[in-house]
Amino acid sequence: MSAVDPTPIETTAAPGAGTWKRLVRNRLAAAGLVVLAFVLLVATIAPLLPLPDPDTVDASRRLEGVGSPGAPLGTDHLGRDMLSRLVWGARVSLAVGVFATLIAAFIGSLIGLFAGFYGRIVDSALMRSVDVLMAFPYLLLAIGLVAVLGPGLINAMIAISVVNIPFFARAVRGATVTLVSSEYVDAARALAFSRMRILFREVLPNVLPVIIVTMSTTVGWMITETAGLSFLGLGAQPPTSDWGTMLGAGRDFITRAPHVSIVPGAAIFLVVISLNFVGDGLRDALDPKLK
Amino acid sequence: MRATPVLEVRGLEKHFLGRRRLFGATAPALKAVQLVSFSLQAGNALGVVGESGCGKSTLAKTIMGLHEPTGGEVLLDGRDVRDIPRKEFASRVQFVFQDPYSSLNPRKTVRQTLDAPMRHLAGLDAPAREERAAELLDLVGLRPEFAGRYPHEFSGGQRQRIGIARALAASADVLLLDEPVSALDVSVQAQVLNLLRKLQRELGLTYLFIAHDLAVVENLCDEVAVMYLGRIVEQAPREVLFREPRHPYTHTLLSAVPVPGQARGQRLRLVAPGDASGLTDEGVGCAFAPRCYRAEPRCREELPPLDDAAVGHPVACHFASDTDPKEHAG
To answer: B145: which chain A residues are within 8 Å (Cβ-Cβ)?
Structure first.
């Protein structure tokens, strides 16, 4: 028990700068950041790279293996260059995964925050609506939404966002409910803070880790869920390809030419695991207790 | 006639409605605070004591407005608090919480915790807040360089000092202290109590001090109210209450306070069997009767009024004027 004298602690820097420093000090998170930065960079400058056209079919070069001359990652069943398709597919997959996650996280977190904060009828109304969403098998719901909106990448993205709202809403509501009854929220009420101020300044920062971790796991699902829709012909329309479509296309040749599915699969794996490392790192970096 | 009390509570009631069950009737309401009245003069300290669950914390939170009162009224300087804007009330009356761990936002530095009320309630500009923050930390005995630290970097006693600084940040003059030291180690308790006494002297603060420990109250309070199952059963100036307790419950509580230099067997130890359960049970008689050494059939039928006719200070007991309650003890 230290009565009055504090244990000596290094002086604290400004929160913003400290968060970044703590994030990159975490090796896994730093590695994840490097991978993500590389993928993002490559996807962004894809038009400038000396790559063959990803949609050019060459029947004479079908299913060539990894390391073939002129096709470092081989070719698919239509003789298209895998590396080029991977790079161009990254643009689609990352855009869909990230935007769908942001949309789902934004709407889902707001629902969860309001439900947990206001309780009673607001809680019941919001969470029962979310339960309705959850009651559908996710793919069925996504297909239903796409059927209404029409096929296409943007609509697939919207459908995937809606399907993932419940995960955010439930996780955030759970965290909010426990925080709302904490005494520092009572203290904020005693200081006559407005409800919005309490919700967004006192509660939200403490719910943020939950949102971040849920987001980092969700991006991966999103990419594969979009793949599912694309596979059913409801997502990316040919010849546009995202990683999910490529993965699905390789299914028929899994024994003869495994690289057609392994290459996009490995790319998804790499991005998802990097996101998870960064997400965990960010959660810890944002926690003042773990400085 | 005394001046207008800074804080007055008239017939305050707080009932928690029972949950409605899926089938059948609603569970009975929990009457946590029943017809509590008192008034507090500026610069005074009123202690409210009672065992766990007697409604004393609920009383403080209801006065603060954290619970909506079921009935009665709270007056600040003679004005009904319902007519006072929330911000104005909050800048006059503040709360210090029992648990110094959960009452500070873990993601805010001390400076941020203190900053919000200064800007929001007092409307100070940045340089003024800077100055005031340093002043507040000094006032509660914390070093100025602590301002940038997070709550988990502090001990319980230091956190409670931060809680007190937060309550004072907007220049409140009435503090509702909800067992502010009961979560602390005994040695730290004394330091925080000394701080509270110093602040009261220097700033002329008015305290409503909730405690379950008479010894803590004895040090700080001018007047003491004893609560049992939601009601005040006795209220008197500190010396009177400690010298001549009139209510059997007060007497029982006092007999539990250890006296230095007196061995256990040397003094009378009154014990109230059972505990203060059954708050929902709306009996007709005195709530303490089932545990009272003095109880007679009348006690179970007739609720003794809280009045000062018998002994000069308010007591809710049919036998308040009995000379020495000890002779009835087993």
So the answer is: 11
Residue A30: which residues within 8 A CB-CB, separation 6 or more?
A23, A24, A281
Residue B247 pLDDT: 86
Contact A96, A153 (CB under 8 A): yes
A91-290: in CATH 1.10.3720.10: yes
ipTM of the complex: 0.82
Question: Number of Cβ pairs closer than 8 Å across A and B?
Answer: 96
Could you give the domains of chain B?
A: 7-245 (3.40.50.300)
Q: Which of B64, B141, B158 sits opposite A190 (nearest CB)?
A: B64
B163 chain-A contacts, CB cut-off 8 A: 187
pLDDT band, very low/low/confident/very high, at B196 (cuts 50, 70, 90):
very high
Q: Taking CB atoms and an 8 Å limit, are A184 and B105 in contact across chains?
A: yes
What per-residue string of b and e applies to A182-216 under the rule 16 or more CB within 10 Å gives b?
bbbbbbbbbbbbeeeebbebbbbbbbbbbbbbbbb
pTM summary value: 0.79
Instruction: Count how many residues are written for chain B.
Output: 330
A184/B157 CB distance under 8 A: no
B187 to chain A: which residues are within 8 Å by CB? 1, 3
The CA distance from A192 to B84, in Å, is 12
| CA distances, B69 to each of A77, B5, B15, B72, B159 (Å) | 74, 20, 8, 7, 30
pLDDT score for A1: 40
A189 in contact with B, Cβ within 8 Å:
yes
Map out the domains of chain A as residue ranges.
91-290
Mean pLDDT on B277-294? 70
CB contact under 8 A, B97 and A186: yes
Assess B188–A contact: CB distance below 8 Å, yes or no.
yes
Does residue A170 register a pLDDT over 60?
A: yes
Looking at the predicted structure, is the pLDDT value of residue A100 above 80?
yes
Which region among A180-189, A212-221, B186-195, B257-266 has the lowest average model confidence (pLDDT)?
Answer: B257-266
Nearest residue of A to residue B87, measured between CA atoms: A192
Q: Side chain identity at B21, as an amino acid letter?
A: R
Q: Which residue has tokens 């409140």?
A: B172
Q: Identity (one letter) of the amino acid at A267?
A: A
- A9 pLDDT band (50/70/90 cuts)? very low
- Interface residue B103 vs chain A (CB under 8 A): yes
Asked if B153 has any chain A CB less than 8 Å from its own CB, the reply is yes
